Each structure stands twice: as C-alpha cells, then as structure tokens.
Amino acid sequence: MTGLLQQFSPFARFHVAMVLTFAVVPGAARADLFDYVKKADPSFEWELRKTTKTDDGVIYDLHLVSQTWQKIKWEHQIQVYVPKAVKPTATMVLWNQGGKPGALSATIGMEMARKAKAPVAFLFGIPNQPLFDGMREDALIAETFVRYLKNGDESWPLLFPMVKSLVKAMDALQAFAMREWNFVVRFFLVTGGSKRGWTTWLTAAADPRVKAIAPLVIDTLNMQAQLPHQLKSYGRFSEMIDDYVKRGLVPMPKTKRALKLWSMVDPWVYRDKIKVPTLIVNGANDPYWTVDALNLYWDDLKCPRWVEIVPNAGHNLMENKIDPTRIANTLGAFARIQIHGHKMPNLTWKHDDFKGTARLRVESDVPPKTARLWVADAAKRDFRKSVWKKHQAVVNGKSVLGTIEPPADGFRAVYGEMEYQIDGMTYYLSTQVRVLQKK
C-alpha cells in the first residue's frame, strides 16, 4: 500500500455531509459528468475586482460566473493569496469551499501559501446556496437527486455544477495569472472538505490540469459497500445522513435510474481516471463514516496515495483541542512536495497477529522521526465517541513495529502514525485502521 489548523478552525463552517452508499453500475454513466463539464456555457466570465496589498503580501479578489445551471446563474468569489516570500508557480493550490471570504479566510490562505510555497486560491460558493426555498448542503443535494430520479435530466445532480465550478475557476485563474503576472499556470492541486472533498475527487477525474488532490473528510467511496457496512457497525444509518433517508434515497430505490445516479456521483466509479497523487485526510471520530470506511476502497484506488487520520477529531477536524498544526502542516507539506518536485515517503504496512497480540508492521523508504499507535475501545462497533490514546511503537531505521493486546470485551480499533519533516516542518502520515473484537 502506497501508503491550516488553528487557522483552519473555520473549516467547521464548510463541513457537510454526504454519504450514501448503494449498489452502483460501474462505468454506466461516467460520460455524463464529462459531457456536462465540457459543454460550452456562454454565461462564463470572470474579472479582477480588487487588489489588496498587506503587510503579509497581496490578495487578489476575482468575481466568477461559472455557468448557468437549471436557469440559475452560479456566481462565485475567488481570492488568490500571495505572501511576500512566495512567487508564482506552475502549479497553484485551489481550495473549494462554501460561504464567502473574510478576514479569517485571508489568514488561512496566506498561511497555506507560506507552507506550500505557492500561491493559493480559495473558490467560494461551492455550491451556490440557498436554492429552492432555502435549501442548503445535504438537503439541497438530496433535492437535486430526487429531481433527477423524477425527470431523468442528467444535469440535475448537484455535484455536476459543483465540479464545473472548479473547472471554470481553473480557466479563470490561468487567464488571471497570464494577465496579472505574465506567468503560465499549468496545473492545480485541488482540495476541499466533505462535499467539497467529494467535488475534489470528481474534478480530478474530469480535468487533466489537476496535478494532485487532497480530499478531506469524505470517507465514503465505493458506495455500494459503505452503507451495508455502516448498518453492520451502527445498527442503523448514521443520523448525519437523515436528509437522504427522509427523501427516500437511503436505502436506494432498486430502479435503473437510481442505480445510474449513484454510478454518476461515486468517485470510486471513476478510479481508473484518477491517477494523480492523493492525500486523504479523515477524522477518527467523524460521525458520518465508520472508523474503517477507508478499507472499503483503499486497495481499489489507482493513484499514488497517502492518508492522515486525525485522532479524536470529528467532521471539522478540530474537536477536543486538536493540535492546530497537525493538519496545516500535513496539507502544506503535501502541497509543497507536489508543487516543488520533492518526494513523499513510500509506505507499506501490514496488520496481522503474533503470539496472541495484534501487530502492525510498517516499512518506509524515508525513516520517520518517530511513530506511535493510536488505539480506541468501544462496547459496540461504533467508535464515534471513543477516546483515542497513544501507544508506543518502535522505530528501527526505516521499519516501525507496534503491538497491542486484543480487547477483553467489545471492540478495539488501532492504526499507526508516523512523523516526518520537510524543511523543519513536521507532518503526519497514517496507516489504515484495523478493528479487533474479543475472541
């Protein structure tokens, strides 16, 4: 297996959920996304509206009209952050999110750009909302899915215009860089959280300018397997997806059109087209997904990939006084490495048993600075409210070894975490989670 964030606390504002997992028809509808994204839209336009020079650097404010979707013009704000020590680079970071820019987003963007050593663009208004009498987030997505199921119009699923918004933002940013800096931006590292993480995955499939991706807290690929696993783990669907349950989307109707819908929006279906370096960031206590949801799609992915699982963190990655530098540094290091031609550690790992204990062995071509196991217990197979505790792991050069006793009762989850550094900045990479049960 190949194997910012005090300033990122507002990420909680952008959190959402989408988890639906059902039987999909692999490949049956993939072209529909591509056709929608490529279709010409005369409403596309952008302009630079403001340039602000600060003590930290320069902030550019752009206005974007990405498209007209269902007779609704989608408008966005883009802010480009360039700290004083950062020069234009051939690859730009593109963070997609909801809401609107403010002082805090400027702080986040500048810090991200410093860590990545590259300009960072924040694309706001993904999706445009509220729509349809005040609907937002998951309720809005569910509404568009229901409308597709009723009338068969394949432009209805909200993920399609969300992806197109990123594609048109890339068009605008390339034109902006040439006009403002006389510089060619060729590629983008795309990131975003929850449904914006979902959009990140699909954008990588739809546009070759995406050089790398970092989807955050969207641990639900391979939708045909995820929902049954959630039922097995929780005994019911997570209450976080009630917007879909109430609309009759969970469980999914056994119709041809419904099967096609999920094949159109599940990033797992597009895995043959997503081959760019990928950093997956999840919270170990995210209430939307099961603790080991990653295991249902990790081995199927075709891309070079790494994962960081943040212990004691939920969907916004910042609960329980999480170290704010953990995610900021890991995301910043990944961006710096991808943009400036450095090398990520190559990790392999194996969970097994040895003499009655659970064992995790990790090999890394770059020796980690240190390593640990994170362990949590639960009476049932539900770790959403469990406390993760550190356990020692032994580092011997490029090898890591950790062992843990199986639970005396109930369930125990364990994963490994390694620390690395780039230019003195510590970042974190994890293994998959293993769930142990009393024998």
What distance separates the N and C termini?
Answer: 28 Å
Instruction: Using the coordinates shown, work out and report the CATH topology of the largest domain.
Output: Rossmann fold
**Oligomeric organization of the protein chains:** single chain
Q: Can you tell me the number of structural domains?
A: 2
Helix percentage range: 25-40%
The radius of gyration over CA amounts to 21 Å
Succession of helices and strands: HHEEEEHEHHEHEHHHEEHEEEEEEEEE
CATH superfamily of the largest domain, please? Alpha/Beta hydrolase fold, catalytic domain
State the name of the first-level CATH class of the largest domain: Alpha Beta
CATH architecture verdict of the largest domain:
3-Layer(aba) Sandwich
Largest sheet: 9 strands, mixed
Major sheet: arrangement of strands: 1-2-3-5-4-6-7-8-9
The overall average pLDDT, rounded, is 91
Continuous helix count:
10
Structure class: alpha/beta
Provide a descriptive summary of the structure in words.
The protein has 439 residues and is of the alpha/beta class. It folds into two domains: 11-344, Alpha/Beta hydrolase fold, catalytic domain (Rossmann fold, 3-Layer(aba) Sandwich); 346-439, Sandwich (Immunoglobulin-like), CATH 2.60.40.1930. The protein contains ten helices and 18 strands. It has helices at 11-14, 30-38, 103-116, 137-151, 159-181, 195-206, 223-234, 242-246, 256-265, 324-340, and strands at residues 45-53, 57-69, 72-83, 91-96, 120-123, 187-193, 210-216, 278-283, 305-310, 347-354, 357-364, 370-378, 389-392, 394-396, 399-404, 411-422, 425-430, 434-437. Strands 1-2-3-5-4-6-7-8-9 form a nine-stranded mixed sheet. Strands 12, 13, 16, 17 and 18 form a five-stranded antiparallel sheet that branches. A four-stranded antiparallel sheet has the order 10-11-15-14, with no helix packed on it. Helix 2 (30-38) crosses helix 5 (159-181), helix 3 (103-116) packs across helix 10 and helix 5 (159-181) packs across helix 6 (195-206). It starts with 10 loop residues before the first helix and ends with a strand. Mean pLDDT is 91; it is low at 1-30.
